[in-house]
Amino acid sequence: MAGDLALGASIEGCSTIPEADGRVDRTIAEASKSEKLDKLEDWAKTNQIKFSKGKCRVLHLGKNNPKHQYRLGVDLLGSSTVEKDLGVLVDNKLSMSQQCALVAKKANGILGCMKKSVASRSREVILPLYPALVRPHLEFCVQFWAPQFKTDRELLERVQRRATG
């Protein structure tokens, strides 16, 4: 579905032009992004693809971001502080703490279901289930969202200790 496209890669290809004093004229870059959104809308109309504009949002990254508003056709795109793409939560600070908390919650839920549904509590029974049922959730896209903070690592390590303890 076209509304589910992650448009950031094509839009972020815009370059900024530094002024003589080193400042960056962001208005040129913002206009270019708007033009690319207009081209995308025209392409969708030409190919008879309808965007689900309610699903399209802008994730403003960085502390000094001027947070421009963008349009897709005649509709303003909503702004968001956190978005989920391909199952990974990304916030406007590129902090992965929310993702770590979500993964730990899922893994703990699966561990709880395992302990309730498996009659034997012996390590010989529980340990083979861990790599099959829990670890895939802990490792999904970990190259991207790897825990950055000590508290996030400790949270995930607690899940592992709970499974093996």
UniProtKB/TrEMBL annotation:
Highest taxon in the source lineage: Eukaryota
Report the protein name in the record: Mitochondrial enolase superfamily member 1
**Mind giving the lineage of the organism this protein is from?**
Eukaryota, Metazoa, Chordata, Craniata, Vertebrata
